[in-house]
Design goal:
This protein is mostly beta strands and 128 residues long. The protein has a single domain (2-120), classed as Jelly Rolls (Sandwich), CATH 2.60.120. Strands 1, 2, 3, 4, 5, 6, 7, 8 and 9 form a nine-stranded mixed sheet that branches. The chain has one helix at 29-34, and strands at residues 2-4, 12-16, 40-47, 50-60, 71-77, 80-84, 88-91, 96-99, 105-120. The protein is globular, with a radius of gyration of 14 Å. It has one helix and nine strands, in the order ββαβββββββ. Strand 1 and strand 2 form a beta hairpin. The longest helix is centred in the N-terminal third of the chain and has 6 residues, at 29-34.
């Protein structure tokens, strides 16, 4: 899935829900991230009924929510801001945050930021 969002300044974003890795395979996050520019989102592997996705972002994503699924963010590198209706949360490397299902949110990154997300395998990455 690819397209444009106004918040990314008309830059293309690339979202692939195809899972790249199965069990018993080494996943080299820095090597994969090094090959891609911001607004890249790739499903890496399934863990039970969830998927682990790699995201590379810079700028703002649109406001959205997930009706049925929680979303977990883990910052690998850079700085991630998660805006909620009542607050903004700032995360640096090795910090994480859980957005419960139904909560309106958007992500922002003032610099190139690499994140891992864990969410239900059926979640639409752009929100409901």
């Amino acid at each position: 899935m690819s397209g444009q969002t106004p918040e990314t300044g008309n830059r293309d974003y690339d979202i692939s829900t195809e899972v790249l890795f199965q069990g018993l395979e080494k996943i080299d996050i820095p090597a994969i991230a090094g090959k891609h520019e911001p607004w890249f989102n790739q499903s890496l592997c399934n863990v039970n009924d969830c998927v682990v996705r790699l995201g590379i972002i810079e700028g703002e994503f649109h406001w959205h929510h997930h009706d049925e699924e929680d979303e977990f963010f883990y910052v690998v590198s850079g700085k991630l801001l998660i805006d909620l209706e009542s607050q903004s949360v700032e995360l640096g490397p090795q910090q994480s945050f859980l957005v419960p299902r139904g909560v309106e949110h958007r992500t922002r990154a003032p610099e190139r930021t690499v994140i891992l997300m864990v969410e239900g395998a059926g979640v639409v990455p752009t929100g409901d």
